[in-house]
Amino acid sequence: MFNYTKPWALGLALCLAAGAAIAQEDTIGFIKTVKGNATVVSGEQSVPAVPGAALKKGQVLKTGRDASIGVMLKDNTMLSTGAHTELAVDDYQYAPGQERLGLVIRLAKGSLHYISGVIAKLRPESVSIKTPTSLIGVRGTEFVVSVDGDPS
Amino acid sequence: MNRLVSHRFGHWLRSAALCLTLAGCASSYVVLLPNADGTVGKVQVTSANGTNLLERPFQGALTSANAGQTFETTRERIQTDFADALAASPRKPVRFVLYFEAGGATLTPESQQELAKVVDEIATRKVPDISITGHTDTEGDANANLQLGLERAHQVRTLLASPQLTAENVAIESHGEKNLLVPTADNVAEPRNRRVEITVR
Fold it and tell me: B30 to chain A, minimum CA–CA distance in Å?
């Protein structure tokens, strides 16, 4: 337990709290379920997706044949995909205290099941899902999206 | 609606219906689902050709649709076409609220009992992550309360002796007196505001 009666201890506690916040700042959620051949792509690097792994903004989730992946973001938004899918969270702002809220998801191909979290509840207009041919706006809800691999 | 438009719309409707009933038919579309609690939200789909608002359960639109071109599908159809994605959905989060004695980080006797339920919920999950957010009532200085909220959150983290929890999957923060469960004036002791909220995901 921190001792707040000593000024230096308070300073240390604040530093520790800030440090913890920084360490987790770029984690936007966690992979919860994985089936089959699924990978997480960060730039040039590609690693197998595993349950429990932290997800960062901009990482691309890819699933192969008969594969799927389920993700829970920190605001309780739930995203799950089917096979042959390419999905990324391009923008994520979740700091209700500082009034920073936003969620932009990109579905390049495949299928997505989306369930709204706190961001969509607090500021629905800040949530959008981009597909190659459309922009989907969310009004606090649950839906599915399918994107053909070769959109015409 | 004039005859030409009506004809074209009819043609579109037939091809969309055909597309949605043939397995493996390539198409890009959005379908609104009812929420788990039975309510139904809204989804707006905007393409280069127009905007469609989906507001009925199992109402859908192609992502290239013109305005006014939506279709209806069924729960059975969605359960087949999105079987993998639906099955991959994570378990829903569960939220707990623990309460504290005035001015410190000591749980009330009731909340000490409740703690076991949180531990149980964490144990049922293969890869849990949790957030612990500390709160205070408005008695005392706002900065001191920000610290007290943090102290309460850390105390809960210490009490949740679960081997599955790590520095990475636990997020601890304090809202101090800025996020009251029961709105009060400043300097009001309110037991329901002296709390820690835990979300187990």
Answer: 4
Chain A residues 45-84 within an 8 A CB cutoff of chain B: 51-52, 54, 66-72, 74, 76, 78, 80-83
pLDDT in tens, A38-47: 999 999 999 9
Query: Given an 8 Å threshold on Cβ–Cβ distance, is A144 in contact with B85?
Result: yes
B14 burial type by CB count under 10 A (0-12 exposed, 13-18 middle, 19+ buried): exposed
Q: pLDDT of A127-143, one tens digit each?
A: 999 999 999 999 878 99
Task: Give the residue numbers spanning the domain of B43.
Answer: 4-88
B61 and B77 inside one domain: yes
Q: What is the ipTM of this complex?
A: 0.83
Closest CB to B93: pick one of A24, A66, A76. A76
B142 lies in the same domain as B191: yes
From the list B6, B13, B20, the residue with the least C-alpha distance to B58 is: B20
From CA B88, how far away is CA A63, in angstroms rounded?
A: 12
Instruction: Sort out which chain A residues have CB atoms less than 8 A from B173's CB and list them.
Output: 21
Taking the model in full, what pTM does it have?
Answer: 0.84
Q: What is the CATH number of the domain that holds B136?
A: 3.30.1330.60
> Chain A partners of B42 at a C-beta cutoff of 8 Å?
139-141
- Cβ atoms of B111 and B99 within 8 Å: the answer is yes
CA distances (Å), A137 to each of A22, A103, A140, B47, B108, in order? 31, 11, 9, 11, 43
Q: Do A136 and B167 touch (CB under 8 A)?
A: no
If asked whether residues B65 and B134 sit together in one domain, one would say no
Q: Which of B41, B57, B88 is the last residue of a domain?
A: B88
* Token pair of B96 as six digits: 């707990």
